[in-house]
Amino acid sequence: MARPGRTMQLDGGEEPLRRDEAMDYCVNDSRIGPLLLAGDADALTLIHFQNGRGGPRDPDPEWRERPATFREATQQLSAYFAGRLRTFDLPLRPEGTPFQRSVWDALLRIPYGETTSYGALAQAMGKPEASRAVGLANGSNPIPIVIPCHRVIGASGKLTGYGGGLDLKRRLLDLERGPGLFDNA
User: Does residue 15 fall inside a structural domain?
Assistant: First the structure.
């Protein structure tokens, strides 16, 4: 899986990242519904589908509502949904184990408009026996869309679970395969 033109990488080292300080957040009324974004001035750490499978998430009580922190992220998301952006260029700091972070980094290498299976992703990571673990890590991705977990499908070619729901996963894949999906949305 090539990484042409991709400048975005996950921030941080090998240890799981856990933040004790308060984060900023905003709710972005995107073309696919409300998205809760969280992070700080240095990096985006969370995108949550407020209309997704898990239902809405309330910001943690110590988080601060600061939409200005996410101006660039919301602009890039809007451009992506409009079919004008193929590669996000945002600092990211997802919280997870070293294995999860390695899976999320591998997701960043899946080119726009292409899909891969859990098994192929595990193979590309040099862990061909880890397709189930890759699937679990994919499902734990805290920054969907930007870290494109929607590009991973079942070995049979069928769509598999997605935090925003299978309909949204299908819409995102269709968007990447041709312009205009959200023109009337």
Answer: no
pTM > 0.70: yes or no: yes
104 and 76 in a single domain? The answer is no
Alpha-carbon span 110 to 115, nearest angstrom: 7
- CB atoms inside a 10 Å sphere around CB 51: 13
Into how many domains does the chain fold? 2
> Does residue 26 carry a catalytic annotation?
no
Choose the catalytic residue: 106, 143, 149, 172.
149
Do 109 and 2 contact (CB within 8 A), yes or no?
yes
- Show pLDDT as tens, one digit a residue, over the chain (185 residues): 223 333 345 555 443 334 456 899 999 999 999 999 999 999 999 999 998 888 889 999 999 999 999 999 999 999 999 999 999 999 999 999 999 999 999 999 999 999 999 999 999 999 999 999 999 999 999 999 999 999 999 989 899 889 889 999 999 999 999 754 444 44
User: Which SS3 state, helix, strand or coil, does residue 141 take?
Assistant: coil
Encoded tokens for 178: 């041709």
Q: By residue range, what is the domain housing residue 157?
A: 98-177
Q: Helical H runs in 50-128? A: 71-81, 98-107, 118-124
The conformational region for residue 33 under phi > 0 = left, psi -120 to 50 = alpha, else beta, is left
Residue 49 lies in a domain: yes
